[in-house]
Amino acid sequence: MADVDMPVRRLRVEVVYSPKAGEVWQWQGDLPDGATVESALRASGVAAAHPALELAGATVGVWGCRRARTEPLRDGDRVEIYRELKVDPKESRRLRYRKQREARSRS
User: Fold this and answer.
1) What is the rounded (10 degree) CA torsion for 78, 82, 87, 92?
2) Distance from C-alpha of 12 to C-alpha of 55, rounded to nearest angstrom
3) What is the pLDDT of residues 21-39, one digit of tens each?
């Protein structure tokens, strides 16, 4: 006999997306136990909030580690939607350093 009064365990999760540098979109919500990365993305409404985002092809992760959309979530997880980098971070640092060095040599 199943216990009907047994409460369904809920997971508190967060979904974040940064459409451009300096801008962050966040959603926090409760999902049923056994929820996956995909179900969190759907529940968050990120696709409606950012119609230009191609969510189907976007790389996603949990706490900075890439994850499959079928990956089950745990309470407190942070699902992240990654955008492609337009500039290689190493090259960007080199350019900044070069500009700073040139500015110092002119002073």
Assistant:
1) 0
2) 22
3) 889 999 999 999 999 999 9
Amino acid at 94: R
pTM over 0.70: yes
In the chain, what are the domain boundaries?
A: 10-106
Give the separation between CA 26 and CA 44, rounded to whole angstroms. 9
Distance CA 107, CA 104 (A): 5
| Torsion angle (degrees, nearest 10) of CA 2, 13, 15, 65 | -100
Could you tell me which of 8, 20, 60, 57 has the C-alpha nearest to residue 39? 60
The phi, psi pair for 43, rounded to 5°, reads: -65, -30
Residue 4 CA to residue 33 CA, distance in Å, equals: 17
Q: Name the class of domain 10-106.
A: alpha beta
Distance CA 99, CA 107 (A): 13
80: which 2 tokens? Answer: 């992240």
- List beta partners, residue 15: 27, 79
